[in-house]
Amino acid sequence: MLLYKEIRQYLFALIADHPELKKLPSERELQYTFRSTRITVREALIRLEAEGVIYRQNRKGWFISPPRLKWDPVKKVNFYQLAQEQQFTPLTQVVSFETTLASNVVNQAFAVQSPATFHAICRVRSLDERPVMVEEIYCLAAQFDDLASKSLEGSVTTIFERDYGINVTHERSSLVVTAIPDDKADLLNVNSGALCLKIIRQRFNQADKLVDYNIEYWVHSAIEIEVDSQ
Amino acid sequence: MLLYKEIRQYLFALIADHPELKKLPSERELQYTFRSTRITVREALIRLEAEGVIYRQNRKGWFISPPRLKWDPVKKVNFYQLAQEQQFTPLTQVVSFETTLASNVVNQAFAVQSPATFHAICRVRSLDERPVMVEEIYCLAAQFDDLASKSLEGSVTTIFERDYGINVTHERSSLVVTAIPDDKADLLNVNSGALCLKIIRQRFNQADKLVDYNIEYWVHSAIEIEVDSQ
DNA sequence: CAGTGGTCTAGACCACGAT
DNA sequence: TCGTGGTCTAGACCACTGG
Question: Which Pfam family is one of this chain's hits (chains A, B) (predicted)?
């Protein structure tokens, strides 16, 4: 068997046999254990990372992945509630709030005639202290006056409804597997180029007008999507 | 800027500027161009691969990814129709058909009392000659007598309906990002450990009985999920 | 056959983390 | 300060693809 696959197997068994384990031996330790080189050891680690079995935090080491958060994008369930039902301690942090012009993609999504002013919210969500998702939310500044003064840690849809009387009636989501952009990777404390599930959500009101445009980047090993249909 | 990021940038621009390009220069060519080493060149290539911009075929080289197939798992649309609407030439090949005992996972999903006999179909689906998905379909042999004689390149749900009078009324899907198992990677002609979107679909009849259990592995750069809800 | 990517060795220096 | 992962060099041999 190939050496890096042997190392992968060894680590895989190590993790299975020690459910209490949180962190793997260092790359150099593994290198000595297998009388190999860091390149080969890293090949095995990166493989396990792709599988979702382990993850790394920048220069801190390699850690065992906790169970994935199961999430149904169709059902309207609160992030907090969902996390708690699955025995996680959730946390949302607002990283930034700006009222500014936005990218072409956002302008096109809102079908505005000329570049409009948007609120841009950036938030990070964590499970048990581990950042797992970073998102950007865009909505029309003209439509949501004084949004900055609201408490933006919870559901923005609820704020839209309760404070502005604007109801989301349907939404369109798009999911792709890709690499996290570098600025988002920093916020999640993961390595540059880490894998993610990128979800773009467009929420509409009953007049079919876009209410908000939302880009979520999920750490790939942290989430499992579950959908019931028909 | 880091060298591998420079190489990534160079290739990214190369691809953007040459829409007709199908294949990248070889790793050794890039190594000489940048007076660097294969390790560093590969770092850049693997990054672009994670982003979904390029893909490799085993020992053949690195290729530019075509557009992703957009697919709504909720709508019941034929794979052929969907592909053709998006200007792809679709193809389905049956790799194997077995009538046999199945894994514990499958037995549990069907909630059978004792290990049952299943039909196990393995198929590969391609777009424009590029294999993009491999799937395993399990259904109870007792329920679908003589299934082997049907033409299994199309929709199995249609066969269940038309030939056996069994209708699928609802389904449950689960999506995770992970690495393709080695035996499936061979069928897709991708490198061992390649990224995939793994979709498990469980289709039920109106009595809430499981009709079939389906595991799909999609090449991650080949698919984009689109869902409308509510 | 030559050319490709797949695997592997044996080092090096750096930035950042924990202490 | 020391240990960690992040980046990088300069090679090597192998399995497989293509002409």
Answer: GntR
